[in-house]
From TrEMBL:
Protein name per UniProt: Acetate kinase
Binding site for Mg(2+): N8, E347
Function: Catalyzes the formation of acetyl phosphate from acetate and ATP. Can also catalyze the reverse reaction.
Taxonomic source organism: Leisingera aquaemixtae
GO molecular function: acetate kinase activity
Amino acid sequence: MSRILIVNAGSSSIKLAVFGEGLKSLLTAEAAGISDSGELRIGRNRQPAALADHADAFERLLEGLAAQGYPAAGFDAAGHRVVHGGASLTRPERVTAALLDRIDACSPLAPLHNPHNAAAIRTLTALLPDLAQVACFDTAFHATNPETAVRYAVPPSWQQAGIRRYGFHGLSYEALLRRLAETTGTAPPPRLLACHLGNGASLCAIANGESVATTMGYSPLEGLTMGTRSGSIDAGAVLDRAEQTSIAEVRRDLQQQSGLLGLSGLSNDMRALLEDGGEAASFAVEHFCYWCARHAGSMIAAMEGIDAIAFTGGIGENSEAIRTKVLQRLSWTGVPESAVHVIPADEERQIALHTGKLLHLE
Ligand code: ADP
């Protein structure tokens, strides 16, 4: 029987999941608010915890798993979510020293994520040098996008510097496709609009099971209105603000102070905005839905039509109100209710699947 540990290290959180035989989920754990007012959750047990940094949080999580009967030495393999695989890491890979170097080389493309992903791999390697580890890349699913979709219209020197569209949420979209096939028992619809709507939000045009376009680009900043990220904005406006303030301030504003939070002045949390119902909150909600539908038009054009829509992510799965608003704006597509699907996000199991497959685990 195989036991697989899944590691999903974010900018201020680490999520772990343990899978057993038949990819049964055995236990999940999460450290949130690292270097801030932290919290540790092992299974259903939550407690406040001062988590100095990612290494500290990871150690505490592994102790928590061990206390529940899942010591690190008992794992047959580990699978990691790695946010950025750059242009060349386009499928899951067995971790080696050379692969770690390549993940490090992608760190400038995802400075808030890749260094933490690589650090988690190194921590486990130091602890268990013989443990087989696999890295799964969140950009990989979009490697099938055509060059016209991937390129920005910029000079060659930009292209050489790696400035192109990569796309993210790939593991979520792969999981969505798998779950959709499991529930419908059929091949994926020829032209599927997939909507990952969470704190981070993106759309993906999936034609015959392959990504052909997605709304996130060079970084997870492009595309939809998000929790605290602006989504698409004229680069001219960004340049002007950078000239008048500072690069650091613009970066912080666009990533942490914009989106639903910036529009409402209240919260980045969709549920809180829906409950608030005031003018500012409602405007932020309408903005989110309007731009979701408007970008959907672009995805539909990339597929030259649409047969089905699938929602996933915290908002996509849980908020019927948001789904209804978005679907109303897309009623012109003629997609029937029977072709609208709601699929729980399942990235961890997707990583476990890739890990098991690559390592030929039973
Ligand atoms: P992340 O991108 O950080 O993984 P999630 O996918 O967990 O985020 O999504 C978080 C978002 O989902 C928050 O805006 C939260 O308010 C929203 N959400 C969760 N449940 C509901 C609900 N029942 N109604 C509306 N929004 C919800």
